[in-house]
From TrEMBL, chains A, B:
Key words, A-Z: FAD, Flavoprotein, Oxidoreductase
Domain of life: Bacteria
Lineage start: Bacteria, Bacillati, Bacillota, Bacilli, Bacillales
GO molecular function: oxidoreductase activity
Span of domain FAD/NAD(P)-binding: 5-325
EC number of this enzyme: 1.6.5.-
Keyword Oxidoreductase: yes
Pfam family, one: Pyr_redox_2
Organism listed in the record: Neobacillus driksii
Annotated InterPro entries: FAD/NAD-bd_sf, FAD/NAD-binding_dom, NADH-Q_oxidoreductase
Cofactor requirement: FAD
Similarity-based family: Belongs to the NADH dehydrogenase family.
Class in the EC hierarchy, top level: oxidoreductase
The protein, known as: NAD(P)/FAD-dependent oxidoreductase
Amino acid sequence: MKKPKIVIVGAGYGGLMTTVRLQKLVGVNEADIVLINKNDYHYETTWLHEASAGTLHHDRVRYDIRDVIDRSKVDFVQDTVVEIKKEEKKVILEKGEVEYDYLVIALGGEPETFGIKGLKEYAFGITNVNSSRQLREHIEYQFATYNMEEEKNDNRLVIVVGGAGFTGIEFLGELTNRIPELCHEYDVDSHKVKILCVEAAPTVLPGFDPELVNYAVSQLERKGVEFLIGTAIKECTPNGIIVAKGEEEPREIKAETVVWAAGVRGNSIIEKSGFEAMRGRVKVQPDLRVPGFDDVFIIGDSSLVINEEINRPYPPTAQIAMQQGEVVARNIAALVRGKQDLETFTFDNKGTVCSLGHDDAIGVVFGKKVTGAKASFMKKVVDNRSLYMIGGAGLVLKKGKFNVF
Amino acid sequence: MKKPKIVIVGAGYGGLMTTVRLQKLVGVNEADIVLINKNDYHYETTWLHEASAGTLHHDRVRYDIRDVIDRSKVDFVQDTVVEIKKEEKKVILEKGEVEYDYLVIALGGEPETFGIKGLKEYAFGITNVNSSRQLREHIEYQFATYNMEEEKNDNRLVIVVGGAGFTGIEFLGELTNRIPELCHEYDVDSHKVKILCVEAAPTVLPGFDPELVNYAVSQLERKGVEFLIGTAIKECTPNGIIVAKGEEEPREIKAETVVWAAGVRGNSIIEKSGFEAMRGRVKVQPDLRVPGFDDVFIIGDSSLVINEEINRPYPPTAQIAMQQGEVVARNIAALVRGKQDLETFTFDNKGTVCSLGHDDAIGVVFGKKVTGAKASFMKKVVDNRSLYMIGGAGLVLKKGKFNVF
């Protein structure tokens, strides 16, 4: 009898969690496991704001996939997915193709630019290691160039962050810590630096507790951030952005650095492969399989799970992706052993912490509101926990955050 | 009786050495000492190739002027010299003017571009802290951007160094050490990186011992440098350079980074102020005064002293500038005390070491040829010695180089 082949595409939080759990649950004689990923490393998406601001080196936010998988059980293939031929049960890669009996799609999200003109061309993203280190180097180059100019271009010192959601706020927290260092290193007058956050929604951090939101806003304002709330970015140009508040006349804000930190959508491979999706996200069954395709699971940013309490989808987070990975691993193990009764996924929200720099944060943990040093400590516990869940104590020691005071 | 006022413009090797010696030689009741400098820091010009390549942080190559001068004896003014009115005995500054009884011009050199089109606009320089950190950030940004591009621009990984003199060779030594790190940090295939050195003269390091030159060339070639000798840069463009070898047809070399490391001339303030000069350098008297102006001394890169042995000017170096500073301090002390018999400057060449990275070098020290680790060690001794001469043991401990193995 032929062994079933389990293929996992994507080694983000969801895909890697599925893999490390499956390699424990399934014996080498029961199934073949193949993990496919574009890079040979996993990166901590939730730490990218630090690499982007330059407060943590970008090599600190990633680790070698081969260090956490059991290579005697999992076959790792470094390649990029081009398309999934779900009727033929195979994955088309740039350099080949792989057939599967069970497929886990954990390809991660993509930035959503809502068709705003120029964003793709001129705005920087906090999307992956490549984009984060480019953003960091771009900002440093602006500071380094400022003193070289005979006629100073003050817009080099203007940084616009589009979006006051989780990523935007966490990036602002790090950036405002980094700016005084940059000013010192590059002999730039800190009064000349301008940091703006533009958000189309009527509030910062929509969905967060208003008391915590007020705390975050006042802390960031104190560190020099100017918030333009209820203000939409209409266009991004090589020299800045065009914004409009309500029915007001659009106006230009000149800035050499524009960061787009609003909006995530599912992976474009989902639509390209013909799955029925909303903004690249597939509404999965309670067992996390795709309706009509009993051999395909989707988890993470390209999956859509409804929060029954408020009848709206859960926002895509590392926490939900990892919990999905655990359930998918158990469900696939069951299928391999011929069981048809699969486990239902329910999200167990342990809380959310939004950092405001390495020394400050806001959050709700086990139902309790926290701010300041306590919240910041909790954030590091959360960060270390995901390392522990995937790579154990060794990975925490290697890549963990211990600057807790 | 009015106290004479001694004004020193420039806090490079020569100006700072003059100042620290004068503050010991001359009592507060004998003269006022004023030191004027554009920045509030001194930088080690001879270490800039390291800051430019990114092997040493740019804050390591500078120190606060106030840390090495005796502020009870020396009045430090941070301002930029606009012109010297030698007939009126005053220095015009951007924010004011200062009269003098004795003036020491130690303003340092400027890059000489020989009128080559586009060099000023498009080439980077290893001239000061500002230019060096911009060059470093530019290179890092090219590496950071490479992986973000769908259509790869391989020219981002091409670095052209114009000039195979001291600065060019020392920069290449650091750069070739830095490239493997950059490739690792930014996931770039090191085979795609191309480093070219273009030199119009028929040899690398003209004036150096041929055996040592051969050693340097073969070491740098082994680390990936391609030398184009006897080849002139005709033009620098936003996309690279146009070169021609002898009578050959000019050809284009595409490169996103062009570094101009050839040619130093005297300071433009010299000509602007009406001193008779050759490329900004004034042929000073044996006592280092300007012919016809008994109250003005010129030292460092803007002074010209003939090496009688070969009847050619000594090349401008930190070593000669510091020795000149010592003599000028003694001569001014003599003048203040009414003596007219001044000391004659003779250059005591202790040797020259050209580094090829932190771990390799070539040199002639006390008349003996050295290469490799021994020469590299000597280079660090030289670097620490200039710290010691100006700021004593404390400055060596703070800024010295101790990575000797």
